[in-house]
Amino acid sequence: MSRIANLTTRHIVSRRGFALALVLVVVASFNSGSVAFANANHGQISGTILDEKTGEAIVGASIVIEGTTIGAPSDLDGHYAIRNAPLGICTLVISSLGHTSKRITGITVDAGKTVVIDAVLPPQSIELKPIEVTVERMKGTEASLLVKRRTSLSVTDGVSAEMIRKSGDANAGDALRRVTGVSVVDGRSLVVRGMGGRYSNVRLNGATLPSPEPERREVPLDLFPSGLLQDIVTSKTYTPDQPGSFSGGTVDLATKEFPSKLIVNFSTSTSYGTTTTGKERLASGGGQKRFLGLDMGVDNGDRGVPDVIKNNANWASDSSIQRAAGLALADRRWTPTRMGTPVNGGYSLNIGDRLSLGGQRELGFVASWTYANAYRSTKERYTEWDGYGPSLDYHIERGVQSVLWGGLLSSTLKLSDNHKLSLAGVYNRIGEDEARSATGFDVYSDQNVAETRLRFLSRRISSLQVSGDHSFPGLAHSLIHWRASRAAAGRSEPGNRSNLYFLNTGATPDDTLYRWYHTGYSGASIFTDLEDHDAQFALDWTVPFWGSNARLKLGTFVGSKDRAFAASRYLFDSYGQAPSNGLAESIFVPANIGSGRNQYRLENGTFADDHYDAGEHNTAVYLMSDFTVFGRFRFVGGARYEQNLLTVNSADRSYPATDPRSKVRIRSNPKDWLPMASVIWAVSERSNVRGVVSRTIARPEYRELSPFAFQDYALGPLTVGNPNLKTTYIMNYDLRWEIYPQPGQLLAVSAFWKTFKDPIERVVSLGSSGSRNTFTFENSAAAYDRGVEFEGRKSLDFLSSALSGVSLGGNVTFVSSHVRIVQGGGTLELNRPLHGQSPYTINTVLSYTSQHATTEISVLFNVFGDRLISAGRWPTEPMYEKSRQQLDMTFGQKLWQGLSLKATAKNLLDARYRVTQKQLLGDMTGKEGVGGGRATRRGPRLHFGRDAIPCGSTGMLESLAA
């Protein structure tokens, strides 16, 4: 009865939240209506003008309605706005010094509405007659993204807001799986061209981000809801104006720009998981803070370190305070319970507009908020091997509630056509409430065992950026761009609680009467906190010369990062014959807590190396040139000089705290020149051939250098850092041929070759008798990585007019890598792939869009080959995640003006998750997960405003395999 009451209350509160959001939308629609009425005698034409060859904004272009004097110039972004356009059908004439003019015909202007007309102008040619076109280009579309790719200085791929909307992807991690040569491990970790996170960067609007992960310095991609993104661009080759610490790729997440007209967009959705929704799942039974009845992924305060411990530094030395501390932790829930699972839900709200301040001054803004609440339930099998057979064999059931929410506020002040200032703030948070139960056999203890774990994890990231763009016509039309940003990332696990039980002596194998057993993690509460801060300033100065055929770009960068990580462990230890039969809740009772002989006493199990702090200061200057000769050959080249000071402070637990050797301080200060050269041959107006050579680096990460020992205390092996790691140096060679037959269409073939000196790899080694295996990090001797990529997007209307609106796209990547490892003093060489590398990845998209875009249908398929997740040290072989396929479908239908319906089906193949390891006895399965079930999602989307347009699907977490 209580469960029914809880579910009923949840739905009532959820309806209240929906009603409040709907009220906001209705109010906004009334406001937009009044603005539209004020402009009933005119309409508006706006858009962006770009250089067809470079893809950059054209400043000062003239846009005039033919036959009138009504018009406007383009600003620093190439943006223009004709606010008093006469009603009816008109023609635009677009011209700019050094470019061929264009006439765009057939533009219909309606009262109070805005027509978006974007255009690209080719450089001046002998033929001076204007080009007449009728096609417009929209921001956030596949066509606009392909223009960026065609005109970029580096080899780039990406995914647009249009593709994100069609695929129904919930976050940046889901969306990046569609990009050529990109894999996303565990839904959050980036692998580009077979290279893991250490060889890639994630940036937000051009600024690097801190990481909330203690084990690696990478940005989890699942932290960014897709509803906040304009597009995602992956640069696969280095240019000197980028940080040199990458080889695989740099992913730039671009948040939504302010629109040229008022938009108010609200959407809500629900999803159903075949193995979760409506069924019982494991749960912690705890609650989170609530807002509008929605779990916000925030700790409610009953999970953290008890006040009696925080307020008493010497609590363990006073028996009464020690008992009070023990009672405070013992009173918490320790064992998972079972709860019913409601449907998943999500909401999204976007508001934006551009306001005239008089003259050339304008103020634009966009505000977005997105929220998603999802549940998943999985069953797994985990096996650990000692080289000859299984030492640990567990069957695991896991229940997880995930909450993702985020907000964006962006504003730009245009002071004149030549000067603008921008401010952007982003805050995203994800919370995961996990309950886990495992049963199996442990060879080391020769016992049938059961393990339980309750875990709450909160990750967050925030960024505040201020930037300016300035054009100086009197100074050779040079451009200055500057950017200052502060960002922070945090990760908190406020009290993970685990217990281990042995099967009672004499019980049958099917008996569930277990006896509590003390180990290093049984009866333990572990608290971890991480704070990572990043501040940076960058200045770029671009100076044209030789007319418009050449540019010189120089700049500087200063960045500072600080990280602090700390873990504390508190565990119950038994003395004498303390009661041990039953679950933790029945034995951790007040009568059994204390310091007596037959009681459980709380002890401080924190080690000296359970913390580290680190800092990094990077200073860089660069110079690069970009010029065209013979009309078709574009040369890009230059170099970047970086000085990187890195320090890590930790401790060595093998020495007493009073011993000076217990203090560990690691310091490195490399200085590197990173050159790059590229040739872009414009074979035709719609075809390029690119060749790039560059030198880049990959530095050791904080965690890898620290000797801090970390253990997944529930099951996994120990992970220990290595202070002797060296920087990896990489030579990169890239070649690409790309053809753009028509707007929105593409055919590309790429090849790449990379050589590594001292690559850093994660390796696993056998533990000694009675101990677990250990992971650590080592420099291998050398490595190479090579591969080819194929990508195509094509409308199928050339086959038959009946296929108008149907398009087929896809990409295939084949990668081969080889790492040479010298073990045993050079007596043995092992060859294997790079960590995280799949030998192939395949993506296909079949989509249909009706003539007036009222109906959209997409079918998406993704598959990757077996990928290395942990290297091995002889005689332990590497561990591989086995190939897995995913099939998704989406359906969207506009019902009437301002309302549309969208349905998404995810993971239709319900593929199994498997990790295997080669052993002396053959391939062994290390981890196996039953598919997390298929998930379907549907929900209405409301949008109001002056000729409002949808802003994309709401962010959602799906019920997928763990």
- Principal-axes shape call: globular
Radius of gyration (Å): 30 Å
Mean pLDDT: 76
Structural class: mainly beta
The percent range for helix content is under 10%
Portion of residues in beta strands equals over 45%
Number of strands: 54
Distance between the termini: 31 Å
Give me the number of helical elements.
8
> Largest beta sheet, briefly?
22 strands, antiparallel, barrel
- Low-pLDDT stretches are 1-38, 134-140, 288-293, 824-829, 920-927, 936-962
Q: How does this structure look, described?
A:
By secondary structure, the chain is mainly beta. It is built from 8 helices and 54 strands. It has a 22-stranded antiparallel β-barrel. β46 and β47 form a beta hairpin. 47% of the residues are buried.
Keywords:
single chain; disordered C terminus; 22-stranded antiparallel β-barrel; 962 residues; 55% strand
In short:
This protein is mainly β.
List the helices and strands and how they pair.
Blueprint: H1 2-38, E1 43-51, E2 62-65, E3 71-73, E4 79-85, E5 88-95, E6 102-109, E7 114-116, E8 119-121, E9 131-133, H2 142-151, E10 156-160, H3 161-167, H4 172-176, E11 182-185, E12 189-192, E13 200-204, E14 207-208, E15 229-235, E16 249-255, E17 263-273, E18 280-283, E19 290-291, E20 294-295, H5 307-310, H6 319-330, E21 337-340, E22 344-358, E23 361-385, E24 390-416, E25 419-442, E26 447-472, E27 478-503, E28 514-517, E29 524-545, E30 550-574, H7 584-587, E31 600-604, E32 611-629, E33 633-651, E34 663-668, E35 671-684, E36 687-698, H8 702-705, E37 709-711, E38 718-720, E39 728-739, E40 746-757, E41 760-765, E42 774-779, E43 782-795, E44 806-823, E45 828-832, E46 840-849, E47 855-864, E48 867-872, E49 879-881, E50 884-896, E51 899-906, E52 913-919, E53 922-929, E54 935-944
Parallel strand pairs: 1-7, 1-8, 6-9, 13-16, 38-42, 41-48
Antiparallel strand pairs: 1-4, 2-3, 2-5, 5-6, 10-15, 11-12, 13-14, 15-16, 17-22, 17-54, 18-21, 19-20, 22-23, 23-24, 23-53, 24-25, 25-26, 26-27, 27-28, 27-29, 29-30, 30-31, 30-32, 32-33, 33-34, 33-35, 35-36, 36-39, 37-38, 39-40, 40-43, 41-42, 43-44, 44-45, 44-46, 46-47, 47-50, 48-49, 49-52, 50-51, ...
